[in-house]
Task: structure prediction
Amino acid sequence: MSQVLGIDIGGTKIAVGVSGADGPEIAARERLDTGPGTLARALAAGRRLDSAPAAVGFSTTGVIRDGVVRLSPNVPGWDGLELPRLLAEEYGDIPVAIDNDVNAAAAAELRWGALRGVSTAVYLNLGTGLAAALIVGGQVIPGAHGAAGEIGYLQVEPGEPAFADGHVPLEERVSGSGLARRAAALLGRPTTTAELLTRYAPTAANGHVSGPDAAVRDLVAGTLRLLAASVANLCVTLDPERLVIGGGMMGAADVIMPGILAEVRRAVPFAPEVRQARFTDDAPLLGALALAHAAL
Result:
């Protein structure tokens, strides 16, 4: 049976896998850390798993614009990389499909998961970063420059430091990394999103708190309100029939989902159905495999 190859380049890891049948099963995989030589190491892992795949799907942080990777400052040597050309040199006549990691995850949900059979939808990824995929006519729409759904760049305050100033305003506030960074400054120690969404969640049974702990609880509560309002605004803009939420932060879905559900129902004229994504940790790699299957 011919196999397809999927490669996912994230902010901290490289995931490579192969699958045979058209489904969300990964027959074999490798995982590596990002760093120097990311592409060369990813391609070498792909050769170890299947030196002649029927098709290749490639999921990447950032977006592809004018033949190079853009908006990907966190992977060394990645921003400005001529990724389409390099993949064409590696794979020759083998079909190759490339998309950003969030669009790829949405492709997996469209093919096998919570977006299957849906025409107009939003896929929201809550993780280290913040982004969405917009689905119209059952297809992820790229936008004029491949950057549709990059909602991390939305401004929270008019005139605040934004893209031209090297900032990603909404992402810096409500993504996992942004929340953890701001909370650490209040606590005077490192923290994680998982800790913040359990110990400091507004619904946590932690009794009376004061000082830094109280400030962090207020920060978490405010972040969840801002996230919910931003998601509702996105739904007003697209008018989707379904909103699907995935990403690493959804390990705390019981904390995140109630506020989003309430705000969507309150603020969106025609509120969409809201669901959790079927796929979480493996979503971008499964998305790469979905892209490869579609390329066949």
In short: The chain has a mean pLDDT of 93. Residues 68 and 82 are 4 Å apart (CA to CA).
